[in-house]
Write a structure and sequence with these properties.
about 250 residues; mainly alpha; 10 helices; Transport permease protein; ABC-2_transporter; transmembrane helix; ABC-type transporter activity; ABC_2_transport
Length: about 250
C-alpha cells in the first residue's frame, strides 16, 4: 500500500471517528464539561475563595484548577476511550479493518487524538472559567505549563491504551477503568490537594503520573519551571505505559 493511500485511509478514519465522537453526548459532557462545572460548584463555596496557609497562601479554588484540568485527562483516558476500542474489537471491526487499506493503528491513533484534543480543550475551558469567574491567576510559566500538560495527556492516554490492551470486552474495560479511576483521582488531588497532603504521602503520590502532573502544573502556575523530577516521572510513565500497551495489545 502506498504512502498516499495510507494517509488518505487514516484521514478518512479520523473524520469518521470525529463524527461518531461528536454523537456521544455522554463522553463530551464528562470529558469537556463536567470538570469545569465542578470547578464552578467548588468556587461558589465562600470558604474556597479564602487564602489557606496550609496551601502556601493560595485559595482552595486556585488549587482546584489544576485538579479539574487533570480530571478531564483521567476521564478521557480511563472512562471514555477504552470501552470504544474494546467495543470495536468485540464486534470484529479491527479484524475486518486489517483486510482493507485502513490499518487498525489508524483507528487507535484517531481515538487517542480525539480524546487528547477533548482533554486539552477541557483544560483550556477550566483555566478560562477559573480566571473569569474566580480571578484565578493564569499560569505564569506558560511554556512549562504546556509541557506538563502535554506530558500528562500522553500519560493519561497511554494508561487508557493499556486498559484497552488488557481488557477483552467493553464491560471489562469499564470495570478496570473504574477500579483505576478513583486512585488516580486521589493522586490528582480531587479530595485533598497534593499541597495539603502529609509530606510522606505527598512524596509517594508524586511518583504517580497524576500526582507528578499536579505538582508540575502547580509549579508552572506559580511562575516556576516545573521540577525536572516531576516532568521525568510523567515522561517515564508515558513511555512505560505506551510500551506495555503496545506489547499486550491484540487486534482480535
Amino acid at each position: 500500500m502506498s504512502t498516499a493511500t495510507a494517509t488518505a485511509a487514516s484521514t478518512a478514519v479520523l473524520k469518521t471517528e470525529a463524527r461518531l465522537f461528536r454523537r456521544e453526548p455522554a463522553s463530551l459532557f464528562w470529558v469537556m464539561a463536567f470538570p469545569t462545572i465542578l470547578l464552578v460548584i467548588l468556587g461558589s463555596i465562600p470558604s474556597f475563595r479564602h487564602t489557606d496557609a496550609s496551601l502556601g497562601g493560595i485559595r482552595l479554588v486556585d488549587a482546584y484548577v489544576p485538579v479539574t484540568v487533570l480530571m478531564a485527562m483521567i476521564l478521557a483516558g480511563l472512562q471514555a476511550m477504552p470501552p470504544v476500542i474494546t467495543g470495536y474489537r468485540e464486534r470484529g471491526i479491527l479484524r475486518r479493518m486489517s483486510t482493507t487499506p485502513v490499518r487498525p493503528h489508524a483507528l487507535l491513533g484517531a481515538q487517542m487524538g480525539l480524546h487528547g484534543a477533548a482533554a486539552l480543550l477541557s483544560a483550556l475551558l477550566s483555566l478560562a472559567v477559573g480566571r473569569i469567574a474566580f480571578d484565578v491567576v493564569l499560569p505564569r510559566q506558560v511554556f512549562g505549563y504546556l509541557l506538563a500538560l502535554v506530558l500528562a495527556i500522553l500519560a493519561a492516554l497511554a494508561l487508557g491504551a493499556l486498559v484497552a490492551a488488557i481488557a477483552r470486552t467493553g464491560k471489562i474495560a469499564s470495570a478496570i477503568g473504574s477500579a483505576v479511576f478513583f486512585p488516580m483521582m486521589f493522586c490528582a488531588g480531587v479530595w485533598v490537594p497534593v499541597q495539603a497532603m502529609p509530606d510522606t504521602l505527598a512524596h509517594i503520590v508524586e511518583l504517580t503520573p497524576f500526582g507528578a502532573a499536579a505538582q508540575a502544573l502547580n509549579q508552572a502556575a506559580a511562575g516556576d519551571w516545573p521540577g525536572w523530577v516531576h516532568l521525568g516521572v510523567l515522561a517515564l510513565w508515558a513511555v512505560v505505559l505506551s510500551g506495555a500497551a503496545t506489547r499486550w495489545f491484540r487486534w482480535e
